[in-house]
Specification:
heterodimer, A: alpha+beta, six-stranded mixed sheet, about 15% strand, B: alpha+beta, Cytochrome Bc1 Complex, Chain A, domain 1, globular
């Protein structure tokens, strides 16, 4: 059953195995003298190219009190430069039959265009222009700030699940800026200004702080020549600060929170644990957690939680486990349960914990693990059908502290994970509730009717 | 945090059928049993993407059994032949195959991909789901709860409320008037027999369309079509009649406690087989298409900062063509967003597009045309969409020419006929300031 519950869709972005794995063929990389890293992925099946520029700068790199500036700046990059008028960038892309967009996360900001492969040079010309020569007006900034406020309204304020997720994250990280939402807190977005945007821009938007990914029907040598022509001439930022964020202190106290909102239709319980991320040259722990998330809470019909809570009895409408390992700093591993009608959230939490306890006793079903491994191997074949997905995988990894080698080693490391590795990861993760945040999303109890004597 | 919000992905899907690439060579493959598939053979990656769509979809529900086809579709992967739900999932995963079932107003979609190395086993498994689903009571009860949870969540989601309200007001007693999920009452009452009947109504050979892309030849595919689909019943339920459109110009406010109001608006649209469809398509690109610097995005978002996203969409559904749009703004700004939208609608109806706008729209649409065919999955999907839209198999090389043949006079004549600002009805969910329901 693939019905995705609306209530849960925002909670867990379950990354398919496909996104994790890929082939080594057709990938070339080089670095320009000014420090720009370039990755070329060749796929000649269609005369299309995706051109992506990734900056090693995201929401977790913002100065305190300026939450949302990385994302706001992303919007402002579509305004003018010394060579182009506001809005002209996207107009030119569209006039060439292409599409363009951008996205911001905690660890990166990325800009991309998808165009016919013979338009690559024009994309490089424009993208390199806005790396160093952004020119904003006060009017652009104020109008676009309202757009971002409406974006926050749409994504977050209108959705109790999104508000809940934001509150839980703020509780998860005691000191690290992953506690702060990417889009920013509303009261801080409302105060962001041109100086804030330009300060962030000047500090982080530089060739030696960026990764260029070009994927599609291109020749690596031709890409190199073009990249040298357009990006190679840009000045790097001298003394670029090391990417060190405030680290988490020891987490000594379990955190629990309840968000009540009358708009909640489907209550649920969710718990996240602070967990290690993939580290360059040392991805084994993350690989074990990745497989653990599948074994414990992947597909409902195969996973342990699904079997115990949805199949052997009907305590849950939905269960899941999620882990995204591609992150510069400590990430989270989560479990969620949407209880069946009539089961309270405390009861649901108890049943969820009992199931996790059962898993720690029972261990990994080796048939299930075999099937997951089979899927991982097959996903290397399927991944070749999606060159955009490959481009994303490399861009995200290279801006999250990993190397091309790490990306290419990942499938084999996943494949090498043993039952013992998974259980060791599970025991370590679930043994320390002090690193966990447990949240209930629910609606307020109806007010008691007045008792008439 | 994407800069541009994409709307209505499912609804505009049918439009992607109007595009494809000159590079793509489609073969028509007809089996002995008379089942036709469109095939693009592409051997470089050892897998096949397969799309099997049944026209009619959830609109074939019996009215008092609303939601039966949706629940039935969700249960197709919950056990078949001698496998219960978990055994079926295990068989699928051990082949590393993907098998998905979805249903919308006008079609039931089966999407699969499987490796060349175990193609026959994967197809045999898919066949059990298509022809021998078990509909075990335990599975029915389990999945029914998920559907009920989803129905409850939609009732609290402003976008769903807007969509359901618009449909209810517009479409009278046509199936389009109600959610294909059904209601808590109808879904709770569904029995196993109802699901068997729903399957017989929706999944039959007289309404099946097949698109295949990947590592398979026509000769290999031909016998597989009969093997896979030959056991399905020959005929299903009759298609619904044309849907009415009962809304006239005005505003319907649905009070809901959210800080941002969501507005869904529209009036009647244009059929995809209308000779003016391409002119309308170009017109809408200028007015409000996603991915293009449209007038609505420019006026409502870029100049005034009233919204994160606004768009308009030609939605040629099988039983009525619609012209819809969507915008969301803070409660105290939605009235202005609607005012600007109406005024842009009126301006375009009256004055039309400029030569420059038309040229830009043509360049955009013709240039983006070949970019859509970038993977086996996408290609299979588009081919099945083309068949459902009744487009000819040789449509591909002619499509850009048809776009380029549209004249400024065509577009502006269509603008006067199609855009009717006084007929626009806005359903607004939220606490909008300065807006009230009109009569």
């Amino acid at each position: 059953m693939r019905l995705i519950l609306a209530a849960i869709a925002v909670v867990c972005s379950v990354v398919s195995l496909n996104a994790d794995t890929l082939i080594k063929d057709n990938v070339t990389s080089f670095e320009l003298d000014n420090g720009l890293e370039v990755v070329v992925i060749q796929d000649t099946r269609a005369p299309v190219v995706v051109h992506m520029l990734w900056y090693r700068a995201g929401a977790a790199d913002e100065p305190p009190g300026k939450s949302g500036i990385a994302h706001f700046l992303e919007h402002l990059l579509f305004k003018g430069t010394d060579d182009m008028a506001a809005g002209e960038f996207s107009q030119v892309v569209a006039a060439n039959g292409g599409s363009d967009n951008a996205f911001t996360s905690w660890d990166y900001t990325a800009y991309f265009q998808r165009v016919a492969s013979d338009r690559l040079e024009l994309m490089m010309k424009m993208e390199s222009d806005r790396m160093r020569d952004l020119q904003l007006t006060q009017e652009d900034v104020l109008t676009e700030r309202n757009v971002v406020i409406e974006e926050r309204n749409q994504r977050t304020e209108n959705d109790p699940g999104a508000l809940f997720s934001e509150q839980r994250r703020a509780a998860q990280y005691l000191n690290h800026p992953y506690a702060v939402p990417i889009i920013g807190w509303m009261h801080e977005i409302e105060q962001l200004n041109m100086d804030d945007a330009m300060a962030f821009y000047r500090r982080f938007y530089a060739p030696n702080n960026a990764v260029l990914v070009v994927a599609g029907d291109v020749e690596p040598e031709a890409v190199k020549t073009l990249a040298q022509t357009y990006y190679g001439v840009l000045e790097p930022t001298e003394n670029l600060p090391e990417r060190a964020r405030p680290a988490e202190p020891p987490q000594l106290s379990e955190r629990r929170l309840v968000l009540e909102d009358p708009r909640v239709a489907q209550p649920y319980v969710i718990r996240t644990y602070l967990a290690p991320e993939r580290d360059a040259g040392a991805q084994e722990d993350a690989a074990a957690l990745r497989i653990l998330s599948e074994v414990l809470g992947g597909d409902g019909a195969s996973s342990y939680l699904g079997r115990k809570l949805q199949f052997e009895n009907s305590d849950a409408v939905y269960t899941g486990a999620f882990y995204s390992g591609t992150s510069l700093d400590d990430t989270t591993f989560g479990v969620v349960m949407v209880p069946a009608p009539g089961i309270s959230l405390p009861d649901a939490e108890e049943k969820l914990d009992a199931a996790i306890h059962g898993f720690l006793q029972d261990g990994v079903d080796s048939d299930v693990l075999d099937r997951i491994k089979t899927q991982i191997r097959a996903s290397e074949i399927y991944a070749r059908d999606d060159v955009n997905g490959l481009a994303n995988t490399y861009g995200q990894a290279l801006t999250s502290g990993l190397t091309i080698q790490d990306v290419q080693d990942w499938p084999a490391i996943l494949d090498a994970v043993t039952e013992d590795d998974i259980m060791a990861a599970a025991r370590s993760l679930f043994s320390d509730r002090n690193k966990a945040v447990t949240g209930y999303l629910t609606k307020p109890e109806p007010e008691q009717a007045e008792v008439v004597q | 945090m994407n800069r541009i919000f994409s709307f209505f992905v499912a609804l505009v899907l049918s439009l992607s059928a109007t595009a494809s690439s000159a590079e793509v060579k489609i073969q028509e493959v007809t089996s002995e049993g008379g089942i036709t598939a469109w095939l693009v053979q592409e051997n470089s990656i050892p897998f096949v993407a397969l799309e099997i769509w049944f026209q009619g979809g959830a609109s074939l529900d019996v009215p008092e059994k609303r939601g039966a086809i949706n629940l039935m579709t969700a249960l197709l992967e919950e056990g078949a032949a001698d496998m219960d739900a978990r055994a079926f999932a295990a068989a699928r995963d051990s082949l590393a195959a993907t098998i998905r079932f979805d249903v919308s107003d006008d079609s039931l979609q089966v999407s699969s991909r499987f490796l060349t190395e175990n193609r026959d086993e994967a197809l045999a498994l898919l066949k059990t789901a298509l022809t021998q689903p078990r509909f075990d009571q335990a599975a029915i009860d389990r999945v029914r709860k998920q559907v009920l949870s989803s129905i409850a969540s939609e009732a609290q989601d402003p976008n769903s409320i807007a969509g359901n309200t618009f449909s209810a007001l517009a479409h009278g007693d046509h199936p389009y008037a109600t959610s294909s999920d059904g209601t808590a009452e109808t879904v709770t009452a569904l029995t196993r027999d109802d699901l068997l009947e729903a399957k017989a109504r929706a999944m039959a050979r007289d309404r099946v369309f097949v698109g295949v892309a990947g590592d398979i030849s026509a000769d290999e595919l031909r016998p597989l079509l009969d093997e896979l689909l030959g056991d399905l019943p020959a005929e299903g339920a009759p298609m619904p009649d044309a849907a009415p459109f009962n809304l006239s110009g005005g505003v319907t406010v649905v009070p809901f406690d959210v800080p941002q109001s969501v507005a869904l608006f529209g009036h009647r649209g244009i059929e995809q087989d209308d000779e003016d469809f391409f002119a309308a398509f170009l017109l809408n690109t200028v007015l409000g298409a996603n991915g293009f610097q449209s007038r609505l995005m420019s006026e409502v978002r870029e100049k005034r900062g009233l919204t994160y996203g606004i768009g308009s969409f030609l939605v040629p559904k099988d039983h009525i063509p619609l012209y819809l749009g969507q915008v969301a703004s803070a409660n105290d700004r939605i009235a202005e967003a609607i005012e600007v939208t109406k005024s842009e609608w009126a301006k375009l109806a009256e004055n039309g597009v400029t030569e420059d706008e038309l040229t830009r729209a043509k360049t955009y649409l013709t240039g983006s045309y070949p970019l859509r065919f970038d993977g086996n999955g996408t290609i299979a999907n588009i081919m099945v969409g083309m068949q459902l839209s009744d487009l000819p198999i040789d449509y591909i090389p002619t499509r850009n020419d048809q776009i380029n043949a549209v004249t400024l006079d065509d577009v502006n004549r269509v603008a006067r006929e199609l855009l009717r600002p006084d007929d626009l009805h806005f359903v607004v969910v939220g606490q909008p300031v300065g807006l009230e329901t009109t009569n």
